[in-house]
């Protein structure tokens, strides 16, 4: 497989249950935690311009 564009979308939008998604994401239980963290980061960024939130393991800093 070459580049897998848009792989982040099932994680960001919580669509891990859709048919065929596990072909690209695998089926480990950690996927749901990663999905929740990514979704919350995008929501936080959209609301206040900062992707940090309580569930992140490490704070994102501005370079």
Layout of helices and strands:
Blueprint: H1 9-12, H2 22-25, H3 30-48
Pfam families: COesterase
Domain Carboxylesterase type B: 1-61
Organism: Parageobacillus toebii NBRC 107807
Radius of gyration: 13 Å
Helix content: 40-55%
Overall 3D geometry? elongated
How large is the share of residues in beta strands? Answer: under 5%
Protein name: Carboxylesterase type B
Pfam families: COesterase
InterPro entries: AB_hydrolase_fold, CarbesteraseB
Domain Carboxylesterase type B: 1-61
Q: If you had to describe this structure to a student in words, what would you say it looks like?
A:
The protein has 63 residues and is an all-alpha fold. The chain contains 3 helices and no strands. The protein has helices at 9-12, 22-25, 30-48. The protein is elongated, with a radius of gyration of 13 Å. The model has no long low-confidence stretch (mean pLDDT 89). This is Carboxylesterase type B. It holds the Pfam family COesterase. Residues 1-61 form the Carboxylesterase type B domain.
Please sum up the structure shown:
It comes from Parageobacillus toebii NBRC 107807. The chain has helices at 9-12, 22-25, 30-48.
Task: Kindly list the characteristics that best describe this protein.
AB_hydrolase_fold; about 0% strand; Carboxylesterase type B; mainly alpha; about 60 residues; CarbesteraseB; single chain
